[in-house]
């Protein structure tokens, strides 16, 4: 008897986690379908690859504490990136292409957007973040679930993952002033490379087998 509330909580936890997994499946399938269609029509894949994750319980609690949300006050529902998809594109023009194609779908609702490409973060971080609501059809109801989609180029992703690893390894200690400055410098250089690679891509037309 005394375990009943705990068992119910565990069941509720599994149900909620299942919802986030389902939402990730739906949005990632939509993105794969769009990428495949783009390849059929233009012989080109805007998406390089994707990474999906459901935020761990520990990271969710860390974030609730960091943001100062009240636990009593359904803090979970304020965390918009429990379901997360990272879409890594080749060029920055692909980022906005993917964004527009996804948001055009009428079962997808945009609830938040942060363009850290037009307005990079102080750290030098660049990426486009959107949060969408997607309907998940269950046996007895439909739930609208938030999914955060981070869209960035391969170069932006390289910077973000290396910088994240450097910070993570410091066990909560901030990076040195020098490292912060150098990372900003790297981000600026990488942005120039991104722009140059995109210009090269746009100027060099693909050559068909028949045209050779
Ligand atoms: P993890 O481990 O990546 O999941 P908000 O909900 O918008 O009020 P939030 O979510 O803190 O507040 O806003 P933000 O900054 O728009 O998005 C946070 C996420 O963006 C981070 O997730 C990182 O994935 C990424 N990010 C933001 N800034 C940086 C940065 O300077 N460097 C790197 N490497 N990544 C960054 P989490 O939740 O921190 O963690």
Structural account:
- The structure is a single chain.
- The protein is an alpha+beta fold.
- It has one domain: Beta Polymerase, domain 2 (2-Layer Sandwich), CATH 3.30.460.10.
- Helices cover 49% and strands 21% of the residues.
- The chain is built from 5 helices and 5 strands.
- Strands 1-2-5-4-3 form a 5-stranded mixed beta sheet.
- Strand 4 (128-137) and strand 5 form a beta hairpin.
- Helix 4 packs antiparallel against helix 5.
- The chain is flat and about 75 Å long.
- The mean pLDDT is 93.
- The structure holds ligand 0O2.
- Residues 55, 59, 63, 80-81, 114, 121, 123, 125, 129, 160, 163-164 line the site of ligand 0O2.
Structural key phrases:
GTP_Pyrophosphokinase, Beta Polymerase, domain 2, 212 residues, 5 helices, alpha+beta, GTP pyrophosphokinase family protein, 49% helix, binds ligand 0O2
Short description:
InterPro entries: GTP_Pyrophosphokinase, NT_sf, RelA_SpoT. This protein has 212 residues and is of the alpha+beta class.
Q: Layout of helices and strands, plus pairs?
A:
Layout: H1 4-42, E1 47-54, H2 57-67, E2 83-89, H3 92-103, E3 109-115, E4 128-137, E5 142-153, H4 154-168, H5 177-203
Parallel strand pairs: 2-5
Antiparallel strand pairs: 1-2, 3-4, 4-5
Bound molecules: ligand 0O2.
Ligand 0O2 binds next to helix 2 and helix 4.
């Amino acid at each position: 008897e005394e375990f009943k509330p705990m068992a119910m909580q565990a069941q509720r936890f599994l149900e909620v986690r299942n919802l986030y997994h389902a939402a990730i499946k739906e949005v990632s399938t939509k993105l794969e379908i769009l990428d495949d269609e783009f390849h059929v029509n233009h012989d080109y894949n805007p998406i390089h690859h994707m990474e999906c994750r459901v935020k761990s319980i520990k990271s969710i609690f860390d974030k609730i504490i960091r943001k100062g949300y009240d636990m009593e006050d359904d803090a979970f529902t304020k965390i918009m990136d429990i379901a997360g998809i990272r879409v890594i594109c080749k060029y920055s023009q692909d980022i906005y292409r993917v964004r527009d194609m996804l948001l055009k779908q009428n079962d997808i609702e945009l609830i938040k957007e942060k363009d850290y490409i037009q307005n990079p973060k102080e750290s030098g971080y660049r990426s486009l973040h959107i949060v969408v609501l997607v309907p998940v059809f269950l046996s007895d109801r439909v739930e609208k679930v938030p999914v955060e989609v981070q869209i960035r180029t391969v170069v932006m992703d390289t910077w973000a993952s290396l910088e994240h690893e450097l910070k993570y390894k410091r066990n909560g200690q901030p990076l040195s002033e020098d490292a912060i400055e150098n990372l900003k410098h790297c981000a600026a250089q990488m942005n120039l490379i991104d722009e140059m690679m995109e210009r090269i891509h746009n100027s060099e037309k693909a050559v068909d087998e028949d045209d050779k």
